[in-house]
# Entry
Amino acid sequence: MNNTTLLKILKLSSFFIFLGRAYQHLFWDAPYRSFFWDQKLLEPIINFVFDTSWQSYVTNLNTDYAIQILTRSIGVLYAVCAVISITIDENSKKWEQRILKLGSVSLVLLALMITKEKFYHLVMFFEHTIQFGVPIALIYFLKHKNTPQLLFYLKVFIALTFTCHGMYAIGVFYPLPGNFVTMTLNILPISENLAKNLLFTAGILDFIIAVAIFIPKISKAALLYAAFWGFITAFARIASGLHYDISLSIFHQYLYLVIYRLPHGIIPLLVYLYLAKKEIKDTKTSNTLISGLI
# Structure
């Protein structure tokens, strides 16, 4: 795999992340109320700056309307970033690069909002590393064209995402999310206890994969599993929804969850393909040298 192909796949991954988040923000909702309705954090500001009581602030319909406008506006930003992700190259206008950077920063802030909503579980933030890291990696690669460094960064993104997912799946450090169990039960005809045991096993494998991708002899196998598991967990969102009903409304409700998670499978597959191609190339070079010596 040459740098051109690598860049195309990286751009496609960034496109899916921004497209999925744009879909979410434009048609559904985002966790910004966890910030704007945080009384402990914002009440002093509301009282002092706006000379308004907290009760008046949170019950004012204009407050909720402003949050909705903000959410939709960020959705538009993400939609523009999705288009730029596909079209951008090293010769693109500076304003395109700036908008993509703004979108990347917004994804980091979104991960922070989700973390706040989930009671400040730090692993929740790092579980989104691929989602906010890939656009940043795209910007980096367009500027520096440093493939080995890019691959290292992508491996770190994969390791952090899978480690944090595993910490939730084993239900030891943090409570096992109910939606993990619900999705498993909706997709597989098994008992709740078996679903929890299955998730625990998957969590342990997540930890193993996070380490194995840095070990040369087993990295490709680990990356293949990571790609498989990334795609499975992405499509599990919509497969679980189809348990309730098979309709366009169900696809509309769950599709964005699949779209922005597709890079969880694409990025490990990208690194695998690059390493596999490099190994073939190195083997051919080695054989040529040996033939020359003989």
